[in-house]
Protein 1
Amino acid sequence: MTLWKRFLSNRGSLLGLAILIAVIAVALLAPVMFPRGPWAMVQRPFLVPFTNEDLPLGTDTLGRDVLAGLVYGARVSLLVGLVSTVMALLIGVPLGALAGFYGKWVDEGAMRFTEFFQTIPNFALAIVLVAILEPTLTSITIAIAIVSWPPVARLVRAEVMSVTKREYVDAARLAGLSNMHILVRQVLPNTVSPIIVMASLMVATAILLESSLSFLGLGDPNIMSWGFQIGAARTVIRSAWWLSFFPGVAIVLTVLALNLIGEGLNDALNPHLARKGR
Amino acid sequence: MQIAGTILSRLFKAAITLLAIAILNFFLVHAAPGDPATVLAGEAGAADEQMIADLKARFGLDQPFHIQLARYVGNIVTLDLGYSFRQGQPVLDLILDRLPATLILTLTAFWISLLAGVALGVAASARVGKFTDTLITSVALLFYATPLYWAALMAVLVFSVQLGWLPGFGYETVGSGFSGLARAWDILKHLILPALTLGLFFMAVYMRMTRASMLEVAQQDFVKTARAKGLAPATIRRRHILRNALLPVVTLAGLQAGQLVGGAVLTETVFAWPGIGRLMFESLAARDYNTILGVFLVSAAMVIVFNILTDIVYRLIDPRIGHKA
């Protein structure tokens, strides 16, 4: 409970939470709000925003409702952000945990592997992966997961290493518990809080990555996303500013919200660090 | 002496990494849907039977897997990155042609973001909790959440379309006939918006890092000693805190260089900047896999060079590192 209180007493995290809840609500209600879907042509193309009550944000180059696109785009952003983060955790946590727990050659091998992936420019790798595997929602999600797990592995390794040195782990060893049992039941639960903080920031980064890929035309062609909207409007920026402006605001708000929540969680979980005035 | 030894070992590691990327590229070509030969031909409509047969022979696609791998990697080691059937040129030539523009852009963005980020971080940490600090931190948080390409588009909209202050397109004025200083000035004007928008995100990263690091170092005992000696706060900040606080920032900057090269794909796309990022974007639409993989390899090589340079800078700032190793 105190954790919640500390989290909610922070104005930034409260704002972040409010924005995120709003985005989630909009994403869930999309089919109710716009039953025609984001691809329907509803009016003449290039309708200027705030001129038509039914289409407050205007229409795009093909006469599609910009607002409907935004609302459906929220679904993709949140889904890809969440699923790719979970996948990255599924790669990074076990790898980091094994490296930190067993040390020696396991650590050496796992860290070399991680370092290799950290050296590769990660956005370039994501582009290559999606381009070669054909752009679908699945390949985009996998590509983002593949480029985002290394920091998780490093974090978990460091945490596991420090926790493994504690006395209660020695006690568990003396009690004859197996290595796996100690790692999974005694060590890992004590590394959860920094992982949660990192995960919330990773969702934000994943949303940025997804939108950047879609912007380059590497989005799933059947799915409306914020990055796609901006990418499609890139060439008409001089005549139709609103087509790229609104989706961008949506991305900034969502990513900002997740970052605020991540920082709020960090401060709430490490109150002694927060007080130093970060 | 020690630095030379380290550089050698770093170069060795770099070679291994590049080799690994070449192998990764090979597997990617095979992971792509369709025949690897068609993939390498880049679905150029011109991929006729004869060309496919040539490709098969050249890459040994009729040979066992390990021989194919050896050939592919062998080609890359000898700097043969393949041929772009779309552009009708060897991939290496295409990349070398465009590399200078990308280097100018990324290096400028890197220095702008590092200098501005450190300066803002120091300013914020000096007035921690005050209005200046809140303002700088909030702006950084906003930049941190802004997609690179969107910042670029909005900058074009405001500074180029609306205000008409700066060109929002290209590397230099086409057909201007400028030379010498006039040309340099023209390129500089074209460089400002891309470099600034590419640097924004990283500026926010370095600012946050510098601020946190300054505050942390300021807590340490030697700073108290300096204060007790009666040194002026500005001197303490510059000579004692900043020098120590910079170390993690430099490390991070080196690591982030890779993201900068990746981000250049987006910035160059928006500004039609004729670098390797733009080349990659054009190749995406053309499904020119050879070029895409080539740009990928070269950008990884750029990151490695960048990391080695950071390592050297690190040693210059902190002589202790050399002794430890």
Note: Chain B touches chain A through 55 residues (CB under 8 Å).
Protein 2
Amino acid sequence: MINRKLAPEFRAIDNINLIRPEHKKLSNGCNIFCFNSGDQELVRIEWVFGNLSFDPAKPLLNMAVNSMLTDGTTTLTAAQIADKIDFYGAFLQVDYGYENSQVTLYSLNKHLHHTLPVIADILNNSIFPKKELETFKRNQQQKLQVSLQKNDVVARRAFNRAVYGTTIFGYAAEMTDYQTLQHDDMLAHYKKMYQPSNCTIVIAGKIEPEMLTLLTDTFDKDWENSPTPAVTIQPDIKAAADLFYFTEKPEALQSAIRIGTPIINRSHEDFQALQVLNTVFGGYFGSRLMANIREDKGYTYGIGSGLASFKQGGSFFIATEVGADVCKSAVAEIEKEMNLLKTELVPEEELSLVRNYMLGSLLGSLENVFSHADKFKTIYFAGLDYDYYDRYTVTVKNITSDKLIQLANTYFNFDQFYKVIVGKY
Amino acid sequence: MVKFNRFTLDNGLRVIVHEDNTTPMAVLNILYDVGARDEDPEQTGFAHLFEHLMFGGSVNIPVYDEPLQRVGGENNAFTSNDITNYYITLPSANLETAFWLESDRMLSLAFSEKSLEVQRNVVIEEFKQRYLNQPYGDVWLKLRPLVYKKHPYRWATIGKTIKHIEDAQIEDVKAFFKKHYNPQNAIMVVGGNVTTEQVKELSEKWFAPIPAGERYHRSLPQEPEQQEARRETVTAKVPLNDVYIAFQMGARTDQDYYVVELLSDILSRGNSSRLYKSLIKEKQIFSEVHAYITGSLDKGMFVLEGKPLDGISIEQAETALWEELEKIKTEGIPADELTKVQNKTESTMIFSEMSLLDKAMNLASFELLGDADLINHETAKYLAVNAAQVKAQANKLFRKDNSSTLIYLAEK
């Protein structure tokens, strides 16, 4: 008979091997990083561009220019671009982020000679047709109307505005902002931003030598820089003065809560240790917040905390949606859990669990070659190197409860946190 | 090509092993052949509530999550109208912990009153968060009973009403466990950095002692052919009008399934699709428009959905959707357009092989359909579809008397 009450023996994780890229620099200044691994005959290629400095008078430019890259070039209409990509079973995505925006192509290797020229055309010859621009504005405004009915969205917007002020990080589009979008501004923005010296190409998958030749041929000699380099510096973040924001929704069944504060970013020596503290507090299913507010009280379907990190700064936040009638109690429990971390040491048993969980989670996040490329992007665009991950594993393995209580007392001051409630309070 | 080995324990548990040594991780996925369709019409939402209770401790292990997190693992689960699926990913060196945890809760739960009480609340909050406190969140609660009159697909997995969840009792929980959660009604897939020998040994050790239990014989009321156009209009506090048109279609195992899925791709997959090009870009009727199928094991739904732009009436919007459908019915589709969606399907299959968890879940789903090896023959079935079949299916499905239209009007 086996003893089912006894857990099987287990091993701690010691080695986490990250695939590091090969680096090439093209003559036009574009950097290429290659992750060559995997059995499937396919690749993911990303063209990543630094956003231009945020202009509060024309706040949508970075987002709109990126979104409309697939909407037409001097030789291809939006429909033709979509036809070509879809016909070869490829996937073309554009993604706007706060610091960088990118174009991503997923393609089978055998079709790259058909799909890559489409990307080259997009990056060289986009024209942002006026008719497409009108469609874009109209559809975005409709989607915004729907988003603004969602309490969690409204809470996130208010929170970002408070914590990041008037920067690109704090900006949330209003309906009227779409009127500021002008075709000529977009074209000028595009020419400044989407040039090789402001581009990093990250390629991951099964990379054959001839594919690399095709890629460098397409994005080197035929791709020229504009006369002026891209200016991608974002102004410093200045958080708002008011700490409390309440938007009342009399008919709400649930209230969205978002509570947090500006905090150190990835480049700070405390960051990895803070990630451990965050995990204990609200960063995994077994966290203090989940255990208390969901699994004990049943106030919510989910609650969590997280860290956001940018070059200019970062934030720590707690987010949840709770029954409207228990909103005040939920906020009180959040405060209670936070204060506990400042006054009582995290028990060794809990800490060892969190250590193993975090290492397992890192190992599990390396599912395939794309994930290795993602790990690289996280550090590269933050101006860090692979030491970051070494420090991460060393910190997670060795951190003490004393260090955690010290961190909690340094960074967690509930009274000074921004608090946003949307719904009932 | 997804390679696997397969064996069955004496108690009826089917086990599939997919060896993939490119990863240091392992996956253990268990599919239970029970979903919301197996519920009593007066106790809906129960399969899903039960899924939550599976994390409330088992007979020998008081808490489920903690020991798994301690060995670096993560887990989750989902319930659909057809199945309930649980999965664990963890470092392969600690695979045995997954066997220990999963076998104990297949053996028996702790049936704690406290857990039931809390999870009732959690699920009620989930009901509010996802279905009631969101614009358009309750659409499936309204559309399902319009399309299905007899079959249990007429309710959503979350349940018909919060009342059913509030009323759940511990005796109901025990009975449900006995009826559905036994080795005969489960399929286990173990994948990743594992060997078949190792999985056999661990399965014999941890799962073989579990009693076979009773076999559940499913006998659900089948949905009759729809004979009349159905229609419902609701007014709600939403910012935009919304139009849904749903058609009854065949079951997942029908030969025509592949044709119908490609038909939905032609209408709506990606920016080169018909609805996107014609109704968003050219005619500018909608701000967004989609077509998709539910892929249900029993008779499914083919759904069209669109939010008309300001100044477009509901009638104009509906007419525009029907015009696109009529066009396929009368003119069919060019060969190139079919090749396009077939190519996309083929590459999607290859990309899905990049994910260990996806492979494990797919193997379990196909085994439920009859044979895990179907996973390796899917692409060929999509590639074998011809344009005449697509046109024929469009004519079969897209009839007014096979349609259920749900109009969501924005309260002004």
Note: Chain A has two domains: 22-219, 244-423.
Protein 3
Amino acid sequence: MNDFFSKIAELFSTPEYIDSLLHGFWLTIQISYFAILIGIILGTIIALIDTAKPSKWLAIPKFICRVYTTVIRGTPMALQLFIMFFVIFAFKGFPSIITAILAFGLNSAAYTAEVIRGGILSVDKGQTEAGLALGLSRMTVFMKIVAPQAIKNIIPALGNEIITVIKETAIVSMVGMYDLNMAAKDIGSGQNMASYIVPMFVAALFYLATIYLISFLVKRLEKSLRRSDLKAEE
Amino acid sequence: MEDKNTDLVIKNLRKSFGKNNVLNGIDFELKEGERVVVLGPSGSGKSTFLRCINWMEEPTAGDIILDGEKVTEKNVRKIRQNVGMVFQHFNLINNMTVMENLTLAPIKLRLMKRSVAEKRAMELLRHIGLTSKANSYPASLSGGQKQRIAIVRAMMLSPEVLLFDEPTSALDPESIGDVLSLIRELADRGMTIMIVTHEMSFAKEVATRIVFIDKGKIIEEGTPTEFFKNPKTPRVKEFLRKVL
């Protein structure tokens, strides 16, 4: 146990180790942030196409969206990452961070699309009919009636997806990227501390703290959205 | 609105859901000031018939012509502004207050300024005794209150015709009375009404014409007296024997 604490002291008193950890943590944050952003934007587009009223010119986009979510959700993330690195962006000099962001963003989009789709479909059909029967356009009905109600159902599940992405980015160490996970392995290796337990424990704390913060923010957002429901019951 | 002789003409209306043919060729006309009650056994297609009129369900075949204008994909929104609808489950918009429910369409469709719309909404709410609920959300209202608000919401656009799709089927007995008396009042003021209901005594009292639908076709129609006293077809006789 004493050894454990002395190792912690060693880690935090060696500037190179702290530097490596923060460096790795920063890469994890960057990849996660942009991947989640892409996931939400692309996921929203897919969900909108998927839930739109069927029509001639939407038939092909709808089919593409279906295939896309099926393939992405049906294959391992690690394999998708490999395909991005070693097949699609295999040419020299392409920044690996962008490859990673695209890999995770395109993956997250499929899951986010399902979350948003579920949220939209959970709004009672009568709500849409009420708007349409008054002569409102589909656009107005969606923006004013369906979307505000769907958001309440989407936020909790979306929070889950964000957390998943942050943790999943740890597999970029498999393609040699220096993220938080890789930093922990590096610091623990023979040339450095020659002990994995402490750097990995500290890396775990970093992940945990980040995810705890995200959950906290999502819970607060959920609560503030629910507050308008409580107001409704006064 | 210029043409006060509201004419709704429906020709050979058919509706199928997949292989299920719900409406099998309905021909029907509605004149201004008429109050038509649509009766029929459950599953006969009476709600679908009503919902096809304002294209809540897109007809599979046939024409719906309002004031000489055929309903199409292009003008359906304009038609809907002239054909109000009241639903079985009220369908008040949950994320909006009562006031917002009433004023949303007139403001969004640029038919009224906000101030005008709000004034009219308050008048209508006063009429049904619910001004105190103007800033409440639907979740805090009883079924009867919701349905009466849904009716005045449809009235906000001053439609030529009001369609009622089983407006009292989801209500408790006490609220049914409130809702029916509001509909009766609209009828007395000359509103053109089509209503699908199971309230036989109300149908008898308020209708100018009864239409009976079975298996997606109108099999009998007539004045309430004719219909209830001297039904012509065996199917209607059987129906009346069971419900009366």
Note: Chain A has one domain: 16-182.
